[in-house]
């Protein structure tokens, strides 16, 4: 889907004009292409002097984050130009009080003019809610406050995010590695202002980080077009055998997607009582198992609540949340879903911040956020995880239907001043679906470029 404004201000006369008039100046974000280095370097690692975790994170990077990739890692801030940081990682796991923030954060500030376009700032911290000491809790929450404000200050496609690691989990955990690989790469292009929590030391490093889903069978619902098709393609790129599910009416495009990625198509309405059983039967019968389920099928039937009819309300609840709950019951009860399974659901920022005309959709998507949090403990015994991804404004047929003026406002109201691409949602789902991300569960990651309003 075209964003002609971003094209216009990306060079020449348009760029000069936007600058003169003080108009938004979105830049084309750098996105991942297979074969390119994963992490933009050089990477600057900052942290309080003598902090063991800072050294450990620097070592992980020097080791190529598990895949032997050459990463130029530096520990010294620069005092004059010459270097363009691909990423700056600030390790703040040993704070005792908010005053401890100053050394590293102010050094970070001195380096921001040297951050490359589409550069990354990643804070590594510990959860505030796990500390009984008020000063420690305040310092830890302060890291997130800094990160969220910084996200709104960065320009040229750069982002700020935080990785929050449980107190008893080492910074060298496989899930931390998985998260570093995601956040420091172009795969996280439209993820901004987010906190991802690693809640336990779990996850298995894949034999080949370029094919982390090799040998896995993944089901993607609503895969005939839009975000679902991008998810199916991304999971296939990462090595999974994909079952693409959609309604019979979308059969032709569904078959095209399935053929392109050498997967199989399953025509199915996810609201059917036996949808879960039919998915298991197809995945096990055709591919020998079921490891990953992506609940992407979703609909909107917008109306102000005062004008809402039963059909609009009921269909949105049925497709977007009731179907997921029913299918998950079948998956959790199945003997075929016991080997570190992954569930990733599509929520929406409308389910977090609310959106005019979307009481039905907001109810369903808020339900998804709570559903994954409550499902997560049920999967822990089999090393499984359940998470959600909440897209903001993504350039799809769904958002192309929004009237021009509203669309133009909606797509600029985030720190990156543009809409995301379906692949941005897909990359985040692939990260959560990875066997390496086993310690990340029960959370919702927004893929919204840090929406400025509401969530
Ligand atoms: P889309 O309408 O382009 O695609 C949705 C797909 O789901 C379609 O192929 C449709 O046929 C299928 N589907 C609908 N009902 C189904 C059912 N009962 N059984 C099986 N398949 C069914 O939408 P999209 O923009 O690609 O959105 C995908 C997901 O992302 C949805 O859950 C949506 O709510 C969510 N989302 C999208 C955006 C956005 O900006 N596009 C923002 C937030 C959340």
From TrEMBL:
Tell me yes or no: is Ribonucleoprotein among this UniProt entry's keywords: no
SMART domains membership: PKS_KR
Broadest EC class assigned to this enzyme = oxidoreductase
What SUPFAM superfamilies would the database entry show? NAD(P)-binding Rossmann-fold domains
| Keywords, ordered alphabetically | Oxidoreductase
Concerning Pfam families, the annotation shows:
adh_short_C2
The superkingdom of the source organism is Bacteria
- Domain Ketoreductase, by residue range, is 216-396
UniProt KW Oxidoreductase keyword: yes
Instruction: Quote the EC number.
Output: 1.1.1.100
Which molecular function terms from Gene Ontology are attached? 3-oxoacyl-[acyl-carrier-protein] reductase (NADPH) activity
Q: Which family does it belong to?
A: Belongs to the short-chain dehydrogenases/reductases (SDR) family.
This chain belongs to which protein, by name? 3-oxoacyl-ACP reductase
């Amino acid at each position: 889907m075209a964003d002609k404004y971003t094209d216009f201000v990306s060079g020449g006369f348009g760029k000069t004009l936007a600058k003169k008039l003080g108009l938004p100046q979105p830049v084309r974000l750098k996105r991942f292409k297979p074969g390119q280095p994963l992490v933009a370097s050089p990477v600057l690692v900052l942290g309080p002097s003598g902090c063991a975790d800072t050294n450990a994170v620097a070592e992980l990077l020097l080791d190529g984050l598990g895949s032997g990739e050459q990463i130029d890692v530096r520990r010294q801030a620069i005092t004059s130009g010459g270097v363009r940081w691909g990423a700056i990682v600030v390790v703040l796991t040993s704070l005792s009080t908010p005053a401890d923030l100053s050394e590293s954060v102010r050094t970070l500030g001195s380096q921001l003019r040297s951050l490359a376009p589409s550069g990354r700032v990643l804070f590594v911290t510990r959860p505030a809610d796990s500390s009984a000491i008020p000063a420690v809790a305040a310092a830890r929450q302060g890291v997130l406050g800094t990160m969220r404000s910084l996200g709104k200050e960065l320009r040229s496609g750069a982002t700020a995010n935080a990785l929050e690691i449980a107190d008893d989990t080492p910074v060298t955990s496989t899930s931390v590695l998985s998260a570093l690989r995601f956040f420091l790469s172009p795969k996280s292009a439209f993820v901004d202002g987010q906190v991802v929590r690693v809640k336990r030391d779990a996850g298995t490093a894949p034999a080949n980080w370029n094919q982390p889903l090799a040998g896995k069978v993944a089901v993607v619902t609503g895969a005939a077009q839009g975000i679902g098709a991008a998810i199916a393609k991304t999971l296939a790129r990462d090595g999974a055998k994909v079952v693409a599910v959609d309604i019979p009416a979308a059969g032709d495009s569904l078959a095209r997607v399935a053929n392109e990625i050498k997967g199989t198509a399953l025509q199915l309405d996810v609201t059917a009582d036996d949808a879960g059983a039919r998915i298991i039967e197809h995945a096990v019968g055709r591919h020998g198992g079921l490891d990953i389920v992506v609940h992407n099928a979703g609909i909107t039937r917008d109306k102000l609540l005062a004008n809402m009819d039963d059909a609009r309300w009921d269909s949105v609840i049925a497709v977007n949340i009731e179907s997921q709950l029913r299918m998950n019951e079948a998956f959790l009860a199945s003997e075929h879903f016991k080997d570190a399974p992954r569930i990733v659901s599509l929520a929406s920022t409308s389910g977090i911040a609310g959106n005019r005309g979307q009481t039905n959709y907001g109810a369903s998507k808020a339900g998804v956020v709570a559903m994954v949090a409550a499902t997560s403990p049920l999967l822990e015994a089999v090393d499984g995880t359940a998470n959600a991804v909440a897209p903001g404004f993504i350039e799809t047929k769904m958002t192309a239907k929004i009237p021009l003026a509203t669309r133009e406002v909606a797509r600029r109201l985030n720190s990156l001043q543009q809409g995301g691409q379906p692949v941005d949602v897909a990359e985040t789902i692939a990260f959560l679906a990875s066997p390496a991300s086993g310690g990340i569960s029960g959370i919702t990651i927004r893929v919204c470029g840090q929406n400025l309003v509401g969530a």
